[in-house]
Amino acid sequence: MNLSGWEIIIILLVLILVFGAAKLPTIASSVGKSMKVFKKEVTELRDDTDPNTPPKQADQSGSNVPQSSYDATSPQVGDKGQDQTKQ
């Protein structure tokens, strides 16, 4: 899609009429920031799916892994010492 100089000028004039000259810098800034975030996310996604990149190593300390206190062999609340399926 090739836009000539006249087409760009007409588009800018329509934008000025629709939004007003005072809001155009704010809108342009917002669009610019959005494009920057979008490009960053696309780059990160491309880096994550690149097969030539070695996988990141997980933290080996295990400090971020929550420890479970559940023990399947110990009696739990509601256990009455009998099989619950034979009622």
UniProtKB/TrEMBL annotation:
Q: Does the keyword Transmembrane helix belong to this entry?
A: yes
Identify the stretch(es) annotated as Disordered. 42-87
Pfam families linked to this entry: TatA_B_E (PF02416)
Cellular component terms (Gene Ontology): TAT protein transport complex
**The keyword Membrane belongs to this UniProt entry's keyword annotation:** yes
Q: What does this protein do?
A: Part of the twin-arginine translocation (Tat) system that transports large folded proteins containing a characteristic twin-arginine motif in their signal peptide across membranes. TatA could form the protein-conducting channel of the Tat system.
Q: Subunit details for this protein?
A: The Tat system comprises two distinct complexes: a TatABC complex, containing multiple copies of TatA, TatB and TatC subunits, and a separate TatA complex, containing only TatA subunits. Substrates initially bind to the TatABC complex, which probably triggers association of the separate TatA complex to form the active translocon.
Query: Can you name this protein?
Result: Sec-independent protein translocase protein TatA
Specify the species.
Flaviflexus ciconiae
